[in-house]
Amino acid sequence: MKLKTVLIDDEQHNLDNLLQLLRLNCPEVEICATAKNADEGRRLIIEHKPELVFLDIQMPGKNGFDLLRSLPSYNFEVIFVTAFDQYGIQAVKFAAVDYLLKPVNVDELQAAVTRVVEKNLRKKENLQLENLIQLLRKQHNKDEHRVALTTLKETRFIFTRDIIRCESSNNYCTFYLAHNEKLLVSRPIHEFEDILRDYGFIRCHQSHLVNKKYIKSLVKEDGGYLLLDNNTQIPISRNKKEMVSNSLKG
What is the pLDDT of residues 39-84, one digit of tens each? Predict the structure, then answer.
């Protein structure tokens, strides 16, 4: 999993140097944007929603702390990159936030990125545990149950009622959700069949798992298929026709 990252520093050579160091030594990092002042940095953070920001403290006009104070939320980790500044370093140390002194040392850079990766993993595990706790609390109300769908960039917790269908391709599954959203998940369909069976989902075909709530009709012509509310046609395997028909009657 790559960390979406924004770099903010008023000196172009510092940006270029950090960019090069990250590309050569930190494969976990995906740099999506760079900025040379606080206002531009704020705009890019809001636009790209990064997981990690490398932020210079001392910049002309607004400094790095001014930028942070101006943000509406803080859904990312920060690694400060700065020349020595006694007040800045003491403040950063006191808050237990990572910082790197210029010129940046490769070992320290790698260690700081590793700490962010580990912290993100803990956050992800905490979200999964929270989902389990919520599931146990709401076990008698299935409409409030959510399933964890892990993509390359994040783990989403989706209400089962919002899943229209799932379509597999080898060991990947595409989830088609309400509101025309799609998620690609790197797990085989049979795992989700086991999870979603009790929520009214039908495995009508080797590659298709469908939520009964979204089925408009069972069409018998053209070999047989399910017609969904959005007019999508889902094939039915020959050996599953009786099972599908019986499931829809129940």
Answer: 999 999 999 999 999 999 889 999 888 899 899 888 888 999 987 6
CA atoms of 214 and 211, how far apart (whole Å): 6
Q: Are strands 52-56 and 77-82 parallel, antiparallel or unpaired?
A: parallel
Give the C-alpha separation, 182 to 164, whole Å.
Answer: 10
Say which amino acid occupies 105: N
The β-bridge relationship of strands 208-211 and 201-205 is antiparallel
Can you tell me the distance from the alpha carbon of 26 to that of 7, in angstroms, rounded to the nearest whole number?
Answer: 14
Q: What is the pLDDT of residues 5-32, one digit of tens each?
A: 999 999 999 999 999 999 999 999 999 9
**Rounded Cα–Cα distance for residues 159 and 178 (Å):** 10
Between CA 165 and CA 54 the distance in angstroms is 40
Token pair 């008698």 is found at 140
Could you tell me if 99 and 115 are in contact, meaning their C-beta atoms sit under 8 angstroms apart? no
Q: How many other C-beta atoms are found inside a 10 Å radius of the C-beta of residue 15? A: 20
